[in-house]
Amino acid sequence: MPLSNFQTNLDLNMEALIKILDYSSDEIFVINKDQKIIYVNDACKKHYGLNKEDVIGKASMELADKGYWYPSIFPDVLERKEPITIKQTTILGAELLTSVVPILNDQKEVELIVTTARELQSYKMLKVKESDSKKSKKAEDPFGSIMTNNEKVKNVLKFAKKVAAANSTILILGESGTGKSILAQYIHEKGNRRNGPFLTINCAAIPAELMESELFGYTPGSFTNANRSGKKGILESADGGTVFLDEIGDMPLPLQAKILQVIQEKKFIPIGGIKEKSVDIRIIAATNKDLSKMVKSKTFREDLFYRLNVADIKMLPLRERREDIIPLIYNFLYKFNRILEMNKLISKDCLEWLTHYSWPGNIRQLENLIEKLVIVSNDVIGIDDLPEDIYNQGLAQIENTAPATLNEAVELAKKEMIRKSYKVNKSSRRVAKDLQISQTYAARLIREYCQDLSED
């Protein structure tokens, strides 16, 4: 068939070409001579947690400066005007093998820059040489960007950055697993104590009889089986830094009085001691409990509550920040693929299913689930790999969500028919015959809707 006839039959208009590029598992970027991004395919969502509309029109250096990828490669390409291949790391933790090709005009000036990037996990045995103009290094600010696309969480981070500059006591509120400890570390790193220690004690995990010695330390011979030389407590060890009191709502009342004295006077007496010790520390506390109710029930000291509550910050549960679920999934997928030396993918259907789940255990539950799925699934994590409770809740939510438009209803019907036929027929040829469509069209729909259904 002549090439012109082939092209006519395919009807390769701009819309069709963009759809084809979006099917690519490799990331594709196109940047103009002003370093503005003029095209990116759908892979940007799994690499950076951003939609295409969040990227197109932005300056590439603006995103690089925010830490979405490291190191930046475009200045080198503009200067050298020749292709470069480099290893990059994204904000979600994806390791990419990135190739950049400059397109030159007749005057040998850069008109466009075309970038393709493939996940390095696909090249387990490949040794990648770093660009000779860049040296691999750790990010200077590991907490500079807590991952979020949610406006409320962004405002929380702005407020946290403000209060970090002061030495005030901070109370972080939120359900278990919402990231309270990460926010505490973020505040420490953004404050003037960043070069000092950051020490944590979980008040819910340590027995009451041990918590006092862990916090305050003890002198030699203070009690039976005590260390002969005594022990320095967390408060003293954190001098010049920050102490994070996690789940402070579980702290026994007698210890609450002693912690109040430390906050007010920056002094304490170790167990068995007679001399006061002075410490220069900042206290950050967190709890998943309602401390105001505990104050009313006399299970939490009112004076300590008000002393802690100089600045309070509430972390949102994951169900209230659903736009962050998919970026977090990819972040954990990259993490556990790297740790476990695997190369698991996840289907679009499975991603959609997980966004409909309520996540009572929040980010911690999501992280634990992805670790499990990477271990137990086949090459592509699909809906059938999900635990029964998550599967059933996702199914109920999807069934109760009526299509908003005619196009959505048609798309849903098409998806259900293709999946049902492919489960039975297991090949594009037989699916095409079953549904009376072309094999080419059947193959495309199978790629789109049946990633999680492996052939027998």
Q: Could you please describe the fold and organization of this structure?
A:
- This protein is 43% helix and 16% strand.
- By secondary structure, the protein is of the alpha/beta class.
- The strands form four sheets. A six-stranded antiparallel sheet has the order 2-1-6-5-4-3.
- The longest helix has 20 residues, at 406-425.
- It is globular, with a radius of gyration of 28 Å.
- The chain starts with a helix and ends in a 7-residue tail after the last helix.
Topology:
Blueprint: H1 3-10, H2 14-22, E1 27-32, E2 37-40, H3 43-48, H4 52-55, H5 60-65, E3 69-70, H6 74-80, E4 84-90, E5 95-104, E6 110-119, H7 151-164, E7 170-173, H8 180-190, E8 198-202, H9 208-216, H10 234-237, E9 242-246, H11 253-265, E10 267-268, E11 277-278, E12 282-287, H12 291-296, H13 302-308, E13 311-314, H14 325-340, E14 345-346, H15 348-355, H16 362-376, E15 380-381, H17 388-399, H18 406-425, H19 428-435, H20 439-449
Parallel strand pairs: 7-12, 7-13, 8-9, 9-12, 14-15
Antiparallel strand pairs: 1-2, 1-6, 3-4, 4-5, 5-6, 10-11
Helix pairs in contact: 7-8, 14-16, 18-19, 18-20, 19-20
Major sheet size, sense and barrel closure: 6 strands, antiparallel
The count of helical stretches stands at 20
Query: Rg, please?
Result: 28 Å
Low-confidence stretches: 123-145
Q: How far from one another are the termini?
A: 35 Å
Mean pLDDT: 84
What structural class do the secondary elements suggest?
A: alpha/beta
Overall 3D form: globular
> Considering DSSP H and I runs of 4 or more, what fraction of the residues is helical?
40-55%
- Largest beta sheet: what is the strand line-up? 2-1-6-5-4-3
Report the sheet-strand fraction: 15-25%
Tally of strands: 15
